[in-house]
Design brief:
With 115 residues, this protein is of the alpha+beta class. Helix content is 28%, strand content 21%. The protein has a 5-stranded antiparallel β-sheet with strand order 1-2-3-5-4, with helices on one face. α2 packs across α3. The termini are far apart. The chain binds adenosine monophosphate. Adenosine monophosphate binds next to loops.
């Protein structure tokens, strides 16, 4: 299968604003932000299309994605944020390489959809 946009970013084949990286994840600023802070936390492993697959196959990597989201939200937004994993095209997923949206700042009370 062709590399996802995120794999191309991880491999530095296309540019992105990288805000954090370690051996297991990369975090970038979303190119089309839906909130004042809109980051994406992406496992480097290309194997998982969505969060359910990731959870079933590698719970510790999912926990690391969540911990990274938490620490980025503390750094960029005072630690309060919305964490979204779109799952399936009809739910708005466009890139089938699992990623967490971290949204913060200026979110409307009472709305579910952040993206
Ligand atoms: P989803 O729709 O849940 O699959 O999320 C994909 C997200 O990736 C969208 O919010 C896009 O704005 C974002 N995106 C697409 N291409 C890039 C890129 N080159 N750099 C940063 N974010 C991107």
């Amino acid at each position: 299968m062709a590399d996802s946009i995120f794999t191309k970013i991880i491999n530095r084949e296309i540019p992105s604003e990288i805000v954090f990286e370690d051996e297991r994840v990369i975090a970038i600023r979303d190119i089309n932000p839906q909130a004042p802070v809109h980051l994406l936390v992406v496992p480097k492993a290309p194997d998982y299309q969505n969060v359910a697959e990731l959870a079933a196959a590698d719970a510790s990597l999912l926990a690391h994605v969540v911990a990274t989201a938490q620490s980025l939200a503390e750094e960029h937004a005072g630690g309060q944020y919305r964490l979204i994993f779109n799952t399936g095209a009809e739910a708005g997923q466009t890139i089938f390489h699992v990623h967490a949206h971290v949204l913060a700042g200026g979110l409307e009370e009472g709305t579910l959809a952040g993206n």
